[in-house]
Amino acid sequence: MKRDDAAPRRARRTSGRNAAQGAARSGSPGRARGGTRARVGAALTPEALRAVALAEVLRFEAPADAALRAFFRRHPSLGRRDRGEIAEAVFDVLRHRRLYAHLARGAVGPLEARLLARSDERRAGRLSLPELPFALRFSLPDWLADALVAGHGAARAESLAAALLQPAPLDLRVNTLKATPAQVVASLAAAGIDAQPLPQWPGALRVAGKPALERSAAFESGWCEVQDLGSQLAAALVAPRRGQTVVDLCAGAGGKTLALAAAMRSTGQVYACDVSAPRLLRMRRRLERCGATNVQPMAIAGERDPRLERLHARADAVLVDAPCTGTGTLRRNPDLKWRTGPDELARLVQAQRSILSAAAALVRPGGALVYATCSLLAQENDEQVAWFEARHPDWQRRPAGEVLDAQGARLDPQASADGLLRLLPDRDDCDGFFAARWERPKQQGSEG
């Protein structure tokens, strides 16, 4: 039912083919065409390899990071630097795809080469930009550009769109079951990796550059996990206590699950539910590394799985990190804007409501429910809050700032000004996240 928080996010079920065709109609390239795919061979030049990699990603048959991993497996002779340069070029094209296609309309040659040429020009500071409409200038599909303006206003939408074109930083969560932030910083420094504490949240670190983190002793020993600051704060809104029963209903590979387990000091029980057994299998390996012993992975068929019945009205807290468009993560997953469209948004809205209803039934009287998305869209955020509260009028919304401040968070006041958590890439320098926390009335007869 969920993604992997630690990996580049979010490999969702998206209507990618329709979205790509729609982008082509509005001035963006559609699927890569021509003979690039057939040119794969052992003697390709670096430029040709970049074009081949880009062509494979632009087919949108898999998330961009997965497509690149498959490409690198087929070309094992590529060194770390070569892989980094190819990945940087491909992701830059994905971020600016609509703009580059517009600027390359009069050029000749294969599509991939024309897009890469514009990418090289921009990164070298040689790209001249004419006055262009908002959606074209910031390489957004029309539906998404319209949604950002409608939800955030024209000025904020421009600021957000500009931020979403930047690469995402690399954040870590210190695993307090094994180490302190100071110990992690010192261990990484010994490996030549610069990591500094983030003031917004205790135990959050930001790493400089793109080091080989997975080879460091701190990572291998389970002292830290890769997790964006926004994801850490969304998990913290659950505020679990030792000995409680907590359900992560859309656990994925367990980024937030691990944060919950650490906050509970490996006491009580965290049920990590997901419809994907392979994702839960990846979680088991992470659990072994980090030392969390209070997590029970549970593969389910969906939110109506009979196995959830035994948790009915028993959970002290339930987290719904809902499947969503992932528009708040476009800095790290730029392909999502080309693989998602209005039809997919409508499907996700219905899925979110179904999951929220199932989650509410698991909360005991006096317990808490947290709904979170990494979306910037009102349809998945404010409108879902209004929908839930209309059906559960006796549940009390708890101010997000109050919950997080009590745990040591230091956020921009605007991030929780209306009692909801709203993290924005341009203001908070993390993935875009939205979250709400409700508490169920204590009397046993209350609706759930």
Could you explain how this protein is built, in words?
With 448 residues, the protein is of the alpha/beta class. Helix content is 42%, strand content 14%. The chain contains 18 helices and twelve strands. The strands form two sheets. Strands 5, 6, 7, 8, 9, 10, 11 and 12 form an eight-stranded mixed β-sheet that branches. It is globular. Mean pLDDT is 90; it is low at 2-41.
Keywords summarizing the entry:
12 strands, 448 residues, 8-stranded mixed sheet, single chain, disordered N terminus, alpha/beta
Beginning-to-end CA distance, first to last residue: 22 Å
Assembly classification: single chain
Low-confidence stretches: 2-41
Secondary structure: number of strands = 12
Radius of gyration: 22 Å
Count of helical segments?
Answer: 18
- Report the biggest beta sheet as strand number plus sense, adding barrel if it closes: 8 strands, mixed
As a percent range, the share of helical residues equals 40-55%
Please identify the structural class as seen in this structure.
Answer: alpha/beta
SSE string, helices as H and strands as E = HHHHHHHHEHEEHEHEHEHEEHHEHEHEHE
- Range of strand content: 5-15%
Shape: globular
Overall pLDDT level:
90
